[in-house]
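SUBJECT: A protein chain and its fold
Encoding: whole-number codes for local backbone shapes
RECORD BEGINS BELOW THIS LINE
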Amino acid sequence: MWDTLQVTHEGTSDVKRCRKHTLIREYELFRMHNGESISNFQKRFTHLINHLIDLGRKFEKEEMNLKVLQCLNRSWQEKVTAIEESKDLTSLTLATLFGKLREHEEKLHIFEENEQQDKKGKGVSLKALKSAKKYTIFLNYFSIILQL
């Protein structure tokens, strides 16, 4: 009875092996999507790792940490370099690594918001200057007509 339940829910050894190879290939090709948040990236990565662990694949901390850092977009390169140079990847937990990445992502969002506010402020002042210039040109033109 137990064997039947096990095969029904987990599949035969051939099915397990095939699934494991498929997940390993997915792990090898794993990358961060454009515009993806660190939270979503972490969910996808953790989901994949958990499935592989369930199928008997073992991971060391350093291997997972390196994989995460290698899978990040090019825009993360500065942070990746900083983490690689300042942290011991053999003792750093995956949770701590993702925490550092989320913290950096929050800082980037704050910088982007500040830049957008600065652009909006500059746009208004430029419009005011253009209006003042047109008004000055109009006054000069009007004064020339009055002199005639």
